[in-house]
Write a structure and sequence with these properties.
TIM Barrel; 38% helix; two-stranded antiparallel ribbon; alpha/beta; single chain; 332 residues; eight-stranded parallel β-barrel
């Protein structure tokens, strides 16, 4: 398994990370034996980053990951979790952050986590479940820094979801070490310019900002929540079709556009859309590690096989860009 230096942290993360989220569901609703089998296999092939959150199954993902890691006792596992501050706690952010982390550490059976990500959307002015960029910089960061000084977290992170301008502002501040960024074949705007009137959020070259600030990138929504399989079928333990992030406004529209990328398979660039999407996400040098959710240990094997083939070649990227041009002007 290839390792990449993760921003300015100096950590070397496996290019394939282990996503413990609710979309795939294995670490939330899976059979305990399957959970142990999947984590053990990941460790065996060199995966060293495990990504979870309180939000995944209301703590079930953390409990299950903690149980398996305590049994397997890997020497080199790097663990990240997240805090989602509820709106009714926006007036006491520091307390909410601390309480959330203490619960996470208890469920994981750890005395610290390597990366602690803010899970709230970040917007210019806040509102709803979102925090404003100023709240993040003025209140969340000091709370995270106190926890770092106490040895309970090593690195500070965000989920880079929300307003593009606010995300740029927070990344440019240089206070976060990690950013989880939407990057997939339907929306590559973190890395490149989108065609005019393209039906997706424009992240406006966010990778340029992370590289300038030395921020490590965790690739999320690599498969657009499963839509980039090109199939509407979902495994029984997977979540229902998730709300799209960064791409269309509906999951069905994401699937329809994904199917229009099938020439990548038909012309021999990849054996499946899922493989193409996985390898696409590795193709940018800013990417540190990608998260691919799974419902079964077999789905992990598919992701691993794709990663082992390496990034898509330039000819495939050029063909993909040409196919995406047809989406311009369509309703999001």
């Amino acid at each position: 398994m290839q390792l990449r230096i993760f921003g300015r942290t100096g950590m070397q993360l496996s290019v394939l990370g282990f996503g413990c989220g609710a979309v795939g569901g294995v670490m939330v609703r899976g059979d305990p034996a399957d959970q142990e089998r999947a984590v053990a296999r990941a460790l065996e092939v060199g995966v060293n980053y495990f990504d979870t959150a309180v939000l995944y199954g209301d703590g079930e993902s953390e409990k299950n990951l903690g149980r398996v890691l305590q049994k397997l006792k890997p020497a080199n596992a790097i663990v990240g979790t997240k805090v989602r501050i509820p709106p009714d706690a926006f007036g006491r952010i520091a307390d909410a952050v601390t309480t959330s982390l203490e619960g996470s550490l208890a469920r994981l059976g750890l005395d610290h986590v390597d990366i602690f990500h803010l899970h709230n959307p970040i917007t210019v002015s806040g509102g709803g479940s979102a925090l404003s960029a100023r709240q993040v910089l003025d209140e969340v960061v000091p709370a995270f820094e106190r926890l770092r000084q106490q040895g309970k977290i090593r690195y500070l992170g965000i989920s880079a979801v929300g307003d593009t301008a606010a995300l740029h502002q927070v990344i440019d501040a240089g206070v976060f070490d990690s950013a989880q960024i939407v990057y997939n074949m339907l929306n590559p705007s973190a890395a490149e310019d989108l065609p005019k009137n393209y039906p997706a959020q424009d992240y406006a070259g966010l990778f340029d900002r992370t590289m300038a600030a030395g921020v490590g990138v965790v690739g999320i929504r690599v498969l657009a929540g499963g839509a980039l399989s090109g199939s509407a079928a979902r495994h029984p333990i997977a979540s229902p079709a998730p709300e799209p992030i960064g791409s269309s406004m509906s999951y069905d529209a994401d699937i329809e556009r994904a199917r229009r990328l099938m020439p990548l398979v038909e012309e021999g660039f990849a054996s499946s859309l899922t493989e193409a999407a996985t390898r696409f996400a590795l193709s940018h040098p800013a990417m540190g590690t990608i998260l691919v959710g799974m419902a079964t240990p077999q789905e992990f094997e598919g992701a691993f096989a794709a990663v082992e083939k390496g990034p898509l070649p330039q000819a495939a990227l050029d063909r993909l860009s040409a196919l995406r041009q047809a989406f311009a002007g369509e309703a999001r």
